Amino acid sequence: LGLGAGVVLGGLLISLTGLYRALFVIDGLTFLVFFAIIYGAIAETRPPNNPQTPFWQGWGQAFRDRNLMIFALVNVLLTGYLAQVQSTLPVYLNRFATTEAGHGMAEGALSLLFTGHIILATLCQLPMARWLGRFRQAQGLMVSAWLWGIGFGLTWLAGTGMAPYLGAGLALAVMALAMVAYTPIGSALVAAIAPDALRGVYLSVNSMCWAMGYLIGPPLGGWALDQGDRLAHGFWLLLALSILPALGILAWLDNRLPNP
């Protein structure tokens, strides 16, 4: 919800004021508010009898955990998908999607589409979590990967002029489902494979995967858009095909993890 709302609210601020610096100032202030909430309202959960682990020893054990490293590979890829939705997709639909008017989608239409994307993700978060509860965690992530692939394929159809608004709406709807299928399961899987004494380190590795996905995803998408129409359109087909190695990695991980 926060990731999607940031896209819409940030775009609204820029369209109304044109103050790009204000966007970053407000973003920084929200982190201060977040710090105050964490510091004042959330109790420490570390068990009192949990032994202290030397810093480098804990990280070394995490990086030697093959299951964690296998998941990290696909986690970076899935996080990169999220980054494409928030950074590359709005620019692509605005600049390259061919509408009946002969140009890209207007900013107002994009705001409506992404608002619908956020609302759908919010409404489907709990139902999706309940439905995926019947699957093992790696299998749930495979469902997310398939949804990402379908969403990227619909994005390509929308961008090449085949019912652009309908295609973009369907793509964002499917990717909303992909997002809510991925985000809770990813963190839960890491927590499940982590030893109790190293859960914080393992979750830090999970956060590093997010950082890497956002480091790689937006520049890669921006580069593709800068190469012209052919690669800008084909980029979404390449993303759709990229779910195949993700599915293979997740199937491998599923076979390695103990069945609950």
Structure explained in plain terms:
The protein is mainly α. It has two domains: 1-43; 57-256, Growth Hormone, Chain: A (Up-down Bundle). The chain contains ten helices and no strands. It has helices at 2-17, 20-41, 55-64, 66-95, 107-132, 137-159, 164-193, 199-226, 229-241, 243-256. 33% of the residues are buried. The mean pLDDT is 86.
Outline of the structure:
This protein is mainly alpha-helical and 260 residues long. It has helices at residues 2-17, 20-41, 55-64, 66-95, 107-132, 137-159, 164-193, 199-226, 229-241, 243-256. The longest helix is centred in the N-terminal third of the chain and has 30 residues, at 66-95.
Largest sheet: none
Radius of gyration: 20 Å
Q: Tell me the domain tally.
A: 2
Mean model confidence by pLDDT: 86
Structural class estimated from helices and strands? mainly alpha
> What is the count of DSSP helices, taking H or I runs of 4+ residues?
10
Order of helices and strands: HHHHHHHHHH
- Indicate the proportion of strand residues: under 5%
What would CATH call the class of the largest domain?
Mainly Alpha
* CATH homologous superfamily assignment of the largest domain: MFS general substrate transporter like domains
- Strand elements, count: 0
Poorly predicted parts = none
Distance between the termini: 30 Å
